[in-house]
């Protein structure tokens, strides 16, 4: 690639958008993670508790799909949260192969306490956009995500 082609590609809006979105995602993720650790939870533990808090008990086998974890990682996270008394395992009464994870009362109380604070923190670091800009960004990023998913399917 010669210098002219390099300069042209450097100005390409697709590449520039990819870099900007990647950097913004990393910065926002870092801020959210920093906030979560204040409560003694890592991001995966927080995500799992939040899932159980909002959706109720979940089969361990399905949790990985919902919060993007491998089965080995799920076991580790579930063990940690169980040791902290924040969730419990419940065997299925219908199928011995299925075990559910359910948030405990202690876990529910913890999220009742920290989730409003975490939400406020997210609102603070998302304050760089107006409400209208946030709504526009949501629509545009969803559209981009759907397009990327379609592209991924085509590439298979």
Tell me about this structure.
The chain is mainly α and 156 residues long. It has a single domain, classed as Winged helix-like DNA-binding domain superfamily/Winged helix DNA-binding domain (Arc Repressor Mutant, subunit A), CATH 1.10.10. It is built from 7 helices and 3 strands. The chain has a 3-stranded antiparallel beta sheet. The longest helix is centred in the N-terminal third of the chain and has 25 residues, at 13-37. The mean pLDDT is 89.
Give me the CATH architecture, please: Orthogonal Bundle
Shape: globular
Characterize the main sheet.
Answer: 3 strands, antiparallel
Domain module tally: 1
Strand content: 5-15%
Low-confidence spans: none
CATH class term:
Mainly Alpha
The helix/strand class is mainly alpha
How widely separated are the two ends? 29 Å
> What's the CATH topology name?
Arc Repressor Mutant, subunit A
Full CATH superfamily name: Winged helix-like DNA-binding domain superfamily/Winged helix DNA-binding domain
Strands, helices and their partners?
Elements: H1 3-10, H2 13-37, H3 43-55, E1 58-59, H4 60-67, H5 71-83, E2 87-91, E3 99-103, H6 105-125, H7 131-155
Antiparallel strand pairs: 1-3, 2-3
Helix pairs in contact: 2-6, 3-5, 4-5
Features:
8% strand; Arc Repressor Mutant, subunit A; 3 strands; transcription; globular; 156 residues; MarR family transcriptional regulator; Tscrpt_reg_MarR-type_CS; mainly alpha; three-stranded antiparallel β-sheet
């Amino acid at each position: 690639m010669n210098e002219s082609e390099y300069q042209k590609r450097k100005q390409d809006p697709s590449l520039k958008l990819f870099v900007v979105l990647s950097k913004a995602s990393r910065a926002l993720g870092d801020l959210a993670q920093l906030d979560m650790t204040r409560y003694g939870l890592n991001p995966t533990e927080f995500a799992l508790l939040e899932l159980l808090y909002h959706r109720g008990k979940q089969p361990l086998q399905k949790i990985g799909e919902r919060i993007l974890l491998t089965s080995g990682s799920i076991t580790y996270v579930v063990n940690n949260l169980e040791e902290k008394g924040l969730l419990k395992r419940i065997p299925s009464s219908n199928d011995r192969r299925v075990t559910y994870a359910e948030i405990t009362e202690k876990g529910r109380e913890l999220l009742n306490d920290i989730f409003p604070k975490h939400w406020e923190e997210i609102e603070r670091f998302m304050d760089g956009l107006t409400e209208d800009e946030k709504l526009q960004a949501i629509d545009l990023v969803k559209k981009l995500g759907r397009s990327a998913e379609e592209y991924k399917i085509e590439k298979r």
